[in-house]
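Before going further, learn to read the protein records used in this course. A complete example follows; check for yourself that the lines match position by position.
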Amino acid sequence: MNQKRIFLIISFFLVAGFIFGWIIFKKNNLFSSKNNINSSSSFKNEDSLKNSKEAKEEIGKISKDELKINCKENWQKYENDVLGLTFCYPKNWGEVAIEPIENLTLLEGAMDEYSKDENNAYANSLFIKFKSNQNEVALNDDNNIEIRIFNNNYKGEYYPNSFAYEKGPIDNIAELKSNNNICDYRLNFTELWQEQGKMTEFWDECTDGVKTRIINHEEYFNKNLYSYELESLAYLKLQNNFFDNILVKRKYLNIRQTEKKINSFEEIFEAKNYPSNADNSEIISQEKFNEEKEDFFEFVRSIQSYGPIVLEKKDFEQSDGEDSKVTAIRKYYWMLESQNLEEAYKMQNRTNIPLNEFKSDYAKTFKASARDFKKINDNTFKFFVDYQEHNKPKTIHRITARVLNDGKIEIITTEEITFEMVKFGDYTAYAKKQNNKSFIVLEQYGVETIIDEGIATYNQDHLNLMEVKFFGDIKFSNSGKYLIYRMSGWEWSKNYIYDLENTKQIFEFDSGTSGFSKDEQSFFVCNSSGMSTSASGIIFTAPNFKKKFELFNSTNSNIADVECSYDEGKDELTFVYAKGCEQSNEKCKKNEIVYSFNEDKMVKSGTLNN
């Protein structure tokens, strides 16, 4: 009896132990699986855990140092520590640019001003685009690559006509933010706006987290016209807690206002042959589309996220043997940068400014560094300050200040250098802004000569449009005899040549391609027709600047597009121009004229082979 009782008791504990052990094993296994999923640094749109609090906390632990990103040949790497974003992209896409804040340093409040109107394209959104050195979109005019980085307040895309904004967003961005699945993201605007337009998707496919679709934009004027866009999209997540959503778009082709309704994917590549109200001659082939699509897939796979890197405040650096007054000035600007504003306030002498106003003025300071001190007298110094506010461009200021007996700093003058200083021999030329006036300055042995000036900023009602002037593109000619600069304003721009020896402005010309011959006895100007310029190709004598050669004559009277290139080695100028059409048109005939400055005459003329 006792043996049976003992057996039952032992059996009970064995079974209980087995059950308890099994529960612990399953629990640990579940937690292990969960942690493995959450700790992944790759983007997976189907990962529903990304929106959970636990997932966000775990993902946020990924640091930049943990990521490994190797770019393939002819691709380059981009990193943004403010957004916590890195990716690889083909070099031929151009340079990365952020819009509308080119100098992004702080995400908090970055888009508040733009987001007051939710119909603003920048409402709750930043964009990354790829631009060429000429500050134009590198791929084509349709902004092929667009990365929208947005916060959770972003409402979605609107129909491209302000009168239809009342209809609300035309996509399901709220659903995308919720389920992270790009395959379910759709654009659908079927409510005709004043019976004139609707936008729908009529074809799509979705693989590897990338959706490719064709959008049909149907409009009605006196007949139905159809526009189509073929594009790929991907949706990804960041971990900066402000702008955590990325919608990446790659547009391959844009067919405008064709009369034919396209019904299949294959037909889209034949659009150049369809009757149309627009030029659709540059439609890419299906083979080219497949190449570009593969690049986009590679690009999306390279995108990785990490926790944003916050710059640590630097300690103030002492300099052995430095004048104590210079040290005091440097420390003042270091305090502005470090946001130790109450201590900085105590160091400055402007007692008429309340502390709260002072703190408000410098609350957005990101960088402030004093350098290149020049002693004027025992207490007074002239120096430069590199200054930048959060999300603003860097600026350079030239300051004159004195250190008083009580150690406080008194600012005497402040000038903003608006175009970098250029030097030739004893001369220095630059543009500056001071007391709401802008100037072109020529300086020699510390003595300034004002060459040109204007009002620096527009007033609130813009009644001073013609008085506001901006200066830039400052350079000396090779001999140093001339100073060349650009002056611009509201929808206008002019260039000027200043004679240093005779101290006067001697010539004015339109913006475009320009320059001197090697001996500076000739000067050329080339322009294509534009909003504020007409096509031209002219060579002037120097220094009297009289015309000695002009591209326009009785046989060249309908030129619309002109390009110039100067060969300094041969001292020759080549004009390439189109007659009666634009050079961008592949069927347009291009003509060439070569002018030799050595022989002072035209040495070649003819038609180029396309």
The chain is about 15% helix and 40% strand. Helices lie at 2-38, 53-59, 173-179, 286-302, 324-337, 341-347, 355-362. The chain has a mean pLDDT of 84.
